[in-house]
Amino acid sequence: QVQLVESGGGLVQAGGSLRLSCAASRRPCTIYAMGWFRQAPGKEREFVAAINWNGGNTIYANSVKGRFTISLDNAKTTVYLQMNSLKPEDTAVYYCAARRGAGSYYSIDYDYWGQGTQVTVSS
C-alpha cells in the first residue's frame, strides 16, 4: 500500500497563491504517475493536473492551464501543485492520487488517494 498525505491548503484571497504538497510513504516501482483532483460542494470530483514519475509528461485541465504547475521533488516522493492567480471557483477539497500507469484525466484510473486538503479562495 502507498499512503498519500496532502498539505498546504488554506484560505487565500482571489489573485493569491498557494502550494500544495503530497508526500508518498513510498514509491513502488509500479507507481508511474501522480495526479491532483478537486471536488467542490455539490459537484463531482474533477481532474486538475498529473505528472509522470520520470518528471516528464504533465497534463492539465483547461481551467487551470497557465495558472497551476505540477512538479516533483528530486527524491520523487513528493508532488507539488503550485497554484497562482487563484479564483473563487478554485475553491474545493484537493486530492492527491497515484496510479500504476501514465498520467490520466480520469479518477477511476487512479489506485491510491489521499484524504484531501481544503482550499478556499475568497473574492
In short:
This protein has strands at 4-7, 10-13, 18-24, 33-39, 46-52, 58-60, 68-72, 78-83, 92-99, 112-113, 117-122.
Shape: globular
Estimate the helix proportion, in percent.
under 10%
Mean pLDDT: 91
Reading the helices and strands in chain order gives: EEEEEEEEEEE
Rg over C-alpha atoms, rounded to the nearest angstrom: 13 Å
Biggest pleated sheet: 7 strands, mixed
Count the strands?
A: 11
Which stretches of 5+ consecutive residues score pLDDT under 50? none
User: How much beta, percentage-wise?
Assistant: over 45%
Counting helices, strands and paired strands, the structural category is mainly beta
Measured distance between first and last alpha carbons: 40 Å
The helix tally amounts to 0
Please explain how this structure is put together:
There is one protein chain. By secondary structure, this protein is mainly beta. It has no helices and eleven strands. It has strands spanning 4-7, 10-13, 18-24, 33-39, 46-52, 58-60, 68-72, 78-83, 92-99, 112-113, 117-122. The strands form two sheets. Strands 2, 4, 5, 6, 9, 10 and 11 form a seven-stranded mixed β-sheet that branches. Strands 1-3-8-7 form a four-stranded antiparallel β-sheet, with no helix packed on it. It is globular and about 40 Å long. The mean pLDDT is 91.
